[in-house]
Task: structure prediction
Amino acid sequence: MSALTVNEDLLDLYNARSARGEAVFRVYEPESLRIVLGAGGVAERDVHVEAAAADSVPLLRRLGGGGTVLLSPGQLVLALVTEVASPFHNVDYARRINSYIAEALAGLGVGEAADRGISDLAIGERKILGTSLYRRRRLLFYQASLLVDVDLRLFSRYLRYPHKVPDYRREREHQDFCTTLKLEGFDLPVSRIAASLSVLLPERLKGLG
Result:
C-alpha cells in the first residue's frame, strides 16, 4: 500500500504558527479518486483491492480513527489543526466543528443537516458527512468529507461493508445509507460551500478551545 498520507503537512504548518495560537485549515474538492484508510484500517478487510488496482485508484492512509473512505470530485474535504482546552472530549469537539459546517450549509439554504451516530452529519436517516480525529495532548487534527454531488455507486465498487458501523445505519449498503446534497435537492457547487465555510471558520475556531 502507498505510504502517502493525507493532509499531514497541516501539522507542520500549525507548528510553524503555534506561537501565535493560530488554527490552520484547508477546504478543498479532491481532484481524483483515492481511498483513505484510518489509522486502524486494513486494506484487505476494508477495500475491494482488486477493483482499486484495476482502476488505478491509490490507497492512502491518514492519521486518526474512523473508517475507510473514498474521496472523489464532488466532495468537500475539511482538514484543520488547532489547540483545544482539553486532551479529552473528542466527540464534543468533533460535533462542535461539525456544527460549523452545518451553519455554513444553513446559510446556503440547507437547514436539514443534523448530528447522527458518534460524529456524523445526516439529512434524515442518510449520512452526508463523516469525520476523523487525531489527538496529541491538546492538539486536535480534524478531517471530514461532505458528500455534495458524487456517484454513490462508487462506494460499493471500492469499499467493503465496514466492520464497525453506527446504529442508525441499520445494515444498509453504502448507496442506501449515504446521500448527497444534490440528491436531497440542493444544487450547490463545492466551491460555493468551500467559500462560505472559509469565511465562517476563522471566527468560529477562536472559540473552540
